[in-house]
């Protein structure tokens, strides 16, 4: 029995370690081009006590080969005492890899990305837990002191350069590295994003307006008051893109494939030309061309401008009728020449004298 209990303890410890590792693990996808810079937006008003701010971030859609913006939002902490470590993109193995956010007793490493609103690249200065209640720093959070009384005001002095870069490492990325305290936080107990956060990210994924190639780095929904509230009147749009965004050549390469079907509408344009090829067939019989002329008018109104060309056979008939009077004129002159010698009768009267 003692051995069984010991084995169960070991298995339980391994499961806890596995959960911690998966919560901090990288998502198994590597992107060759960097995500856009973070858009500029304001934080919506905190909806109530117990909500913690989770910054917006760029996620990636492999189906469309494009990044899309997951709006920042207020989320209820799954347990008292837990804080949110934001997700971030980091350069690894020749590509950009996504590191998912997680809940834990301490804020861990999030790439040195300056998300704002208390997340300025290292740690969190937006609030703290005290006796099971969360206290908000009103200097960096949009909190109504009328509705929420557990508020304090501490000015945050930023020790890092503020920019809109959204990834760590690589060309142009943040060069921050995990501190000893970050390493401790990485080994602590983690809880993955709650269901409301997962549904919130899925709603952003299915919204085409959130894609970087559509909004050019300036999403119409940059932040929401609660998870999934994309149509709420308190939704906050982005003021500006973090930097001018241009879709990479890899994403643009998919556009010609999508526009390839447009070559098919050109086929009907070639079909109206087929009746013009068929017009030489009625030419041998003038009577048949007259009957065929009205048929294209009813069948294909688009080819009416070509009808004057088909009407040219009647002038050809008038030219053939003109030679006929010339053949009749020699028949009328012939009697005049032949009958004049036959009318000489006076020589026959000489025998009577």
Helix percent reads 25-40%
Biggest beta-sheet profile: 4 strands, mixed
Ends apart, CA distance between termini: 180 Å
Shape: globular
Task: Determine the number of helices (DSSP H or I, runs of at least 4 residues).
Answer: 13
SSE order, one letter for each helix or strand: HEEEEEEEEEEEEEEEHHHEHHHHHHHHH
What is the CA-based Rg, rounded? 44 Å
Structural class: alpha+beta
Question: Proportion of β residues?
Answer: 15-25%
Assembly status: single chain
Strands, total number: 16
Q: Report the average pLDDT across residues.
A: 75
Query: Which segments are poorly predicted (pLDDT under 50) over 5 or more consecutive residues?
Result: 1-24, 251-341, 349-353
Strand order of the largest sheet: 1-8-7-15
Secondary-structure blueprint of this entry?
Elements: H1 2-24, E1 26-31, E2 51-54, E3 57-61, E4 66-70, E5 72-76, E6 83-85, E7 88-92, E8 95-99, E9 102-104, E10 114-116, E11 119-120, E12 127-130, E13 133-137, E14 151-152, E15 167-168, H2 180-187, H3 195-205, H4 212-215, E16 223-224, H5 249-252, H6 254-259, H7 266-270, H8 274-278, H9 286-292, H10 294-299, H11 307-310, H12 313-321, H13 323-339
Parallel strand pairs: 5-16, 7-15, 13-14
Antiparallel strand pairs: 1-8, 2-5, 3-4, 6-9, 7-8, 10-11, 12-13
């Amino acid at each position: 029995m003692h051995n069984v209990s010991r084995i169960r303890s070991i298995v339980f410890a391994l499961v806890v370690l596995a959960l911690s590792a998966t919560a901090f693990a990288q998502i198994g996808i590597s992107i060759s081009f960097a995500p856009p810079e973070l858009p500029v937006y304001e934080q919506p008003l905190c909806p109530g006590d117990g909500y913690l701010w989770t910054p917006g971030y760029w996620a990636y859609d492999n189906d469309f080969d494009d990044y899309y913006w997951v709006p920042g939002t207020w989320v209820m902490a799954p347990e008292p005492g837990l804080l949110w470590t934001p997700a971030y993109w980091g350069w690894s193995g020749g590509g950009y890899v996504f590191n998912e956010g997680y809940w834990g007793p301490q804020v861990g490493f999030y790439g040195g990305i300056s998300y704002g609103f208390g997340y300025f690249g290292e740690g969190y200065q937006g609030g703290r837990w005290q006796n099971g209640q969360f206290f908000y720093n009103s200097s960096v959070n949009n909190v109504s002191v009328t509705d929420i009384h557990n508020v304090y005001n501490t000015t945050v002095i930023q020790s890092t350069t503020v920019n809109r870069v959204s990834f760590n490492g690589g060309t142009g990325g943040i060069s921050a590295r995990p501190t000893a305290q970050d390493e401790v936080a990485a080994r602590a107990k983690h809880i993955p994003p709650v269901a409301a956060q997962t549904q919130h990210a899925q709603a952003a994924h299915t919204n085409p307006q959130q894609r970087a190639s559509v909004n050019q780095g300036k999403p119409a929904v940059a932040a929401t008051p609660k998870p999934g509230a994309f149509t709420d009147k308190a939704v906050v749009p982005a003021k500006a893109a973090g930097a001018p965004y241009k879709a990479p050549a890899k994403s643009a390469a998919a556009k010609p494939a999508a526009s390839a079907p447009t070559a098919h509408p050109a086929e009907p344009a070639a079909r109206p030309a087929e009746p013009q090829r068929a017009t030489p067939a009625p030419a041998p019989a003038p009577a048949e061309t007259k009957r065929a002329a009205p048929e294209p008018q009813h069948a294909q109104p688009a080819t009416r401008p070509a009808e004057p060309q088909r009407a040219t056979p009647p002038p050809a008939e008038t030219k053939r009728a003109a030679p006929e009077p010339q053949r009749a004129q020699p028949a009328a002159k012939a009697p005049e020449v032949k009958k004049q010698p036959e009318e000489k009768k006076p020589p026959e009267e000489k025998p009577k004298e």
